[in-house]
Structure formats: C-alpha cells, structure tokens
Predict the 3D structure of the following.
Amino acid sequence: MLSDREVLSTLDMLRNEHLDVRTVTLGISLLDCVSHNEDRFRKQIHAKVSGLARDLVRICDEVGDKYGIPVVNKRIAVSPMAVVGAPFSSGQLVNIAHTLDSSAKEVSVDFIGGFSALVEKGFTESDLALIEAIPEALSKTERVCASVNVASTRAGINMDAVYLMGQAIKAAAEYTAQSDGLACAKLCVFANIPQDIPFMAGAYLGVGEPGAVINVGVSGPGVVRKAIDRARNANPALTLGQLSEIIKRTAFKVTRVGELIGREVAERLNVPFGVADLSLAPTPNVGDSVGEIFQSLGLTSIGVPGSTAVLALLNDAVKKGGAFASSYVGGLSGAFIPVSEDINISEAARRGFLSLEKLEAMTSVCSVGLDMVALPGNTSAETVAAIIADEMAIGVINSKTTAARLIPVPGKKAGEKAYFGGLLGEATILSVQNRGGSENFVRLGGRIPAPIQSLVN
C-alpha cells in the first residue's frame, strides 16, 4: 500500500489537472439468481443488486473526499444476461432490463452494464433473444448498457452477429430519434472483449470473476497533457522517446492513486479488489481531452498525418506506466478516442481534420475503437454492419480489443451536430463514403475464419 506521504505528494503534483477516478464499478454475479420463473428471477436480481450496492455511492464519495480525488461515476456490472437469462424470451428480457434499471436507480448508480451476449462462434436461443431485445431495452431504460462480443482472434468474426448488430443499432436509433439516437450510446459491439471492464457501455462481469468485485477506471488526459506541456516548456529539445518516458511516469502515478482508492472502496464494501483500468477517457470539459495531447506533441490537430503514430506512442506509454504501477491492471487500459465525449476530437471532425477512414486507421493502435461515432441517419443497417466488420477485423488480426459504438442519427446528415448531453457530449456527424456498396458482402453471413498465428507479419 502507499504511504500517506506518497499519496499526498502525488496528489499535490496532479492538483487542478482534471485527475479523477472516472468510475468505480461493482461487479455482481447473478448466477445464483437463475430461475425459470420471470418474477422470481427479477425479484432475486433486485434483492442482490440492492443489497450489495446499497452503500457503494456513499463509500465512493467518502473515499474520494478523503483523498481529494472525486469518483465521478459509480456503476454496476452484472453477469451476461444472455447466460443468466437463458430461459426467457426477448419480451421477458426487456422486462428484466427494467428491473436492472430500477435497481440501479434505487442505489443511485449512474449505469448498470451486463445486458450482454458473447456470440463470436455462434448463437444460443437466449443470445438471439437478447439481441432482439436490445433496441427496446436500451430505449426504455435510463441506466442499462449493453455489449455484444461478435469476434475474437481465436474464433474469427461471426458475420451473422455483425449483421444482426447493424440492424439492432438502426432500430435503437429509431426508438430514440427525438434524442439523436441516444440508445446507441449505451451499446458496444466488441472483438476480444475483456471480462473485467469497468467502463461503460462494455462492462459486464465475466463468468470467471468472483461473486462480487470492485474494478476501478482511472482517467487522466488532462494530467498527461499538462505533464507534456511542462516538460516541453522547460526543455523544447525533448525527443518523442523522452516525452514517452514522461507519459509513462505520469501514468504510473495516476494508476497508483486509482488503485489506492479502489482498494479502500473494496475493503469498506467487504468485497475483493479486481483491477485498475487506466484509460485516458476524456470528457467534453475543456482541459480534459485526449485530442489536446496530440497538439502538445506537435500536431495541428488529431486526424492529420502523424496521428496514428502519436496514438501508438501514447497508448504504449500509458500501458507501460500502468503495468509498472500495479500487478492488477486490466480492462482496456490505454487511450480512448471517442468523438462526442472529447471536445477537441469533436472539433477536429467539424473542421474536417478527422474523417471516418482516418479514425478507423487510428483504432488499430488505440484501446477501444470507433467510439461514440455519429453517422448520417440514412446509413443503412448493412453499411453499419460493414463498418463494424472492418473494426472487428482490426481487433482479430492484431489480437487486441476493438469495439464499435456507432450512432446513426435519425433525420440528420453529415456535417450536422448530434447532441447527447452530460459526459456523452456532442458530435459532428461524419460522412460515410460509398454507403451503398456493402450489402451483398454483409448478407453472405457465416463466420470469417480465425487468422493463423504462426505467420505474423
């Protein structure tokens, strides 16, 4: 554990630089709630969630106040609903989503994740029912988040699942057309999903996890940017290798603080501590932007040539610093580039520096993928599915996690703005080139085979 002196020294260095614990996420297994009776299942979910999470918000606030570092979001992740809700139809799963939502509201958490399915090799009946339920479940609840893993390096890409998710995203957007397709902001499609993610919308509790566990997500893009700016002001001759070392050391300090807070929350709740996820997850606030780091490292804007190289440097340095700071780093851990949640990245899209194609290229070296990307409302389900397939291919071939959180905004065109509010921010709608050329490919279906691993180049 850290000494009080070490903690205070670190906090003093990072004060006023937008350091926060972005989320403390309580993972709750629902495996012992399983029942063929819907009413009994829902009652047992409510009892378990409300019981284990009753003091989560209060304890997070107390620990945050103690160290002067706010815990911005308090969240819950449950077992994949397609597994624990296997006996139920899509309509019943929508009812269960309402129970998750009301339970989360009762304990005052911001989001509850785990309305999820893992279908990289194929479907069960419950997987299909859950995917069918997603649009209505997310549009009629406030706090429920969903994720579906459709690909992995070992299994390949389930193109039938990719197509279904394209259709689900379009339906979810239409259900929430009055709020610019907001339901889609609570849905992630993954390749190589980890089972210990504290960040939404992808969070769920893997079947190999404890019955209850605390995972903490730490974010500090403002801290990293200020550290780079201080170093370059003091020595303008610093090279990229030297700046990488500064980012790594900063990530080390941020991870140490995050794990300290996570462990204390876990101890007070009397549950195990799981992982610290150090992800540079921005907010729409000025000074809390990943995009600004690109400018601090010499680029005019994120999206110009050199952006992929800068992101690779940033992602690698963050992972190295986090891994050295803690033996229990997990989740995604790296740099996020969500278009709507980062005011600088959103502005880069508005000014034409950042296109969908460049964004996709950059996801080959980031920690998530196409995150909070607003698309024209007339983008077809097949085109959405094809964009997802491209993103999944990047993850599968590179043996890394990638995800797509796409929002086809009903009634709006490329260049217009979509408004989501709060931490979700606003985004310029990106143009999709050649929107009509993917239908025949997507409809072929089947599974794209897993890549060979012995001939890597």
Observations:
- The chain has a mean pLDDT of 89.
